[in-house]
Amino acid sequence: MKDRAIQVIDNNDDGEVLDLKITPVRDALGKIVSGFVIGNTLEQNKAFIMIAHPNDFKANPTLGIGFDDNLLGEELLEYRHNVREQFAMDGLKIKTLDLYNINNVKIEAYYE
User: Fold this and answer.
1) What does the pLDDT read at residue 105?
2) In this structure, are residues 99 and 80 in contact, taking their beta carbons and an 8 Å threshold?
């Protein structure tokens, strides 16, 4: 299951965005027995692919869109093609890709 793993902090949490989400659980003696928050990572995986540049992922060096390179640009056709290609590389099937306005991006995708 590629959409279940360690969570990172997002805009809905307290803390630094993209840091690991840790909630310490202690036993009766006060020792920490767990702490990493495990859950659905579909949205954060999509975000990581959009943010990452090629060579950012050691296990898959060709994965990554580097979307921040185009934040001041207006030509998004190349990025639409790149999103489809990169998401497919990670096993994501795109249902909706609305990438025509940089201020209103909508990507619905799921793992096959």
Assistant:
1) 87
2) yes
Write the CB contacts of 26 (distance below 8 Å, at least 6 apart in sequence): 32, 33
pLDDT tens readout for residues 92-107? 999 999 988 878 889 9
The pTM assigned to this predicted structure is: 0.84
Angle (deg, nearest 10), helices 42-51 and 77-89? 130
pLDDT tens, residue by residue, 58-75: 999 999 999 887 666 667
Instruction: Specify the 3-state DSSP secondary structure of 73.
Output: coil
Which among 29, 85, 39 has a CA at the least distance from the CA of 60?
Answer: 85
* Separation CA 13–CA 20 (nearest Å): 11
- CA dist 59 and 45 (Å) reads 14
Q: What pairs with residue 98 in β-bridges?
A: 106
Say which DSSP state 53 is in: P
